[in-house]
Amino acid sequence: KEFCNQGSIFARLEKAQTQLGMCEKALQEFMEGKQRAFPRFYFMSSADLLDVLSNGNSPKKVVPQFPKFFIAINDYTLEFPNGEKARPIATGMNACVGKEYVPFPEPLLLDGKVEVYLDKCIDW
């Protein structure tokens, strides 16, 4: 009760709400930019997109999201020739249905921004 009766609390809450609105708008604009860069992101929920973007530097954490933007691909087979902390290379893809595995003609290095290496995955 005492907290709610403080004179400045309403103004502080309004200010916090305004700042939160600005942060939400900036985050939405950021996500829209990523969606324009990689249009398959439009088919993901905001929560899944945030997960992909926040883990973009770790392709191992992004690969489980593949079925959400790649049809019939469950994941990629990853190898870490320079250690677990380095960027992996994808050597093939695994289908969502059955146990089909398709090896790549050449390994694909998953480096750069997440939308860049995902775009390379499409062209590969």
Automatic annotation (TrEMBL):
GO MF assignments: dynein intermediate chain binding; dynein light intermediate chain binding
Record domain Dynein heavy chain linker: where: 2-121
UniProt cross-references to Gene3D superfamilies, sorted A to Z: Dynein heavy chain, N-terminal domain 2 (3.20.180.20)
Top-level lineage group: Eukaryota
Entry GO terms, CC: dynein complex
Biological process according to GO: microtubule-based movement
Residues forming coiled coils: none
A UniProt-annotated Pfam family: DHC_N2
InterPro entries: DHC, Dynein_heavy_linker, Dynein_linker_3
Protein's UniProt name: Dynein heavy chain linker domain-containing protein
